[in-house]
Amino acid sequence: MKYLNCIDVSDNQGVIDWAKAKAAGVEFAILRSTRGSGKTDYQFLNNVKGCRENGIPFDVYKYVYAKTVPAAETEMALVCELLKENNIHCIIWYDLEDKSLLPLGGNGITMITRAAEAVATKYGFPFGIYCNKWWYEGVLKASDFTNSFWIAKYGKNEVVTFKDAPIGKTLDFMQHTLYGWQWGSQGRVDGIKGNVDMNLLYLKDDEPIREPEKESDIPKAPEKAYVKAEAATKFDKGLAGVYKVKAKSGLYLRTGAGTNKNAMAIMPYESLVRCYGYYSEVNGVKWYYVVYNGLVGFASGEWLF
To answer: Quick one: which of 216, 225, 227, 279 is 20 to 30 A from 110 by CA?
Structure first.
């Protein structure tokens, strides 16, 4: 068995000096992708750049807030679009730990997880599950899944470094492939201010370590820069559903609500779009926040049926 020292980080760690972190022993990283609002983690692009420049392979995680299938699909679509925009191909780890999900029960959590996985799979991204020992044994219906798991289980509540990593140990209660063990939350790593989560990743002896992305993998800026859609301002669950474009000449998908917003694509007549109930209103017209062919943006509700 081979082991990799790994950290998982978000904008909670602020600006990271990735050169120092690598020199301190970081061999892999798992980066938070989007915040609860759906906006990109404030340090995500800096962290991607730092990992790429210093030859550190990485995955991403999505902390889950969704409590319905449509919401789970929307959350995951935003993550996949972020990865697609930045030419990233990696595992997406579905972070199940928020206590607001507990009322869903095991069956409900299985439903949202499978919905999110279906979206990730459609985009071509591998999908894994993160949770702690209590969730694995007492909240999830773990038998519903065949995915790899990344598990949190801490020992003593104390400051740790990579020298304290549980090399040679594993989690005996696991019934699934153990991809990673988050073994500490008060890690100290040079280049990072304050605490950082510490992980140990497991690889078989004959399993190659993923090659880090090279500078050449970073996409060049297109001639016409892509503008990410604005956030919707309102929600009406009655609007959720699949719609068809009824404009014979096609309908623009825009970055915001209103005909003055930039066009992202033209959606042909009778093409299908999905709305999850989010929208913005301009001059009495509802502009639905929709997903179309992997893009997320706004379309005039007057031309959808």
So the answer is: 279
Cβ pair 251, 245 in contact under 8 A: yes
Task: Note if the pTM is more than 0.70.
Answer: yes
Tens digit of pLDDT for each residue in 36-61?
Answer: 888 999 999 999 999 999 999 999 99
pLDDT (tens digit, 9 = 90+) per residue, 250-281?
788 899 999 898 887 778 777 888 888 899 99
For residue 189, report the phi and psi dihedrals to the nearest 5 degrees: -135, 130
Q: How many helices (H) and strands (E) does the chain have?
A: 5, 15
CA distances from 136 to 76, 127, 157, 176, 198 (A): 21, 17, 21, 10, 19
183 with 153: CB under 8 angstroms? yes
State the Rg of the chain over Cα: 21
Return the sign of the alpha-carbon dihedral for residues 302, 75, 12, 209. Answer: negative
Contact 263, 299 (CB under 8 A): no
Half-sphere exposure of 66 (CA within 13 A, CB side): 28
What is d(CA 258, CA 270) in angstroms, rounded to the nearest whole number? 21
